[in-house]
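Posting this for the archive.
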Amino acid sequence: MTDLEVSDIATAAFEGGSNYWIEEVTVRDGNFHGAIYASGALGAGAVLMIRTSDGIAPYALTRGLLIDGVRHAACHRKISIKAFLENYDASDADLALQYALFGRIVYG
């Protein structure tokens, strides 16, 4: 996956699909790797810290974890990764993020 695809999926999750369970997203160590937003920093290799609304300690999200989450989400939907990347919405991005952070669907 390209940096832009990673950033776009993170944006879809943060701004729509996952905002019902995410309390806060921060960039670990404040290193945005030249990006303006956290989702762009993730695509560029930064580590994001995701704090959930239920108060559980923050989860670390890396580019690699989100890519693995996309693989699981595509399998969950019974489509190829290519098909997922060509036609995902905020709910699909939420699936990918939950698989990336938790290895399963926890919310929704």
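Residues 3-17 form the longest helix (15 residues). The chain has a mean pLDDT of 93.
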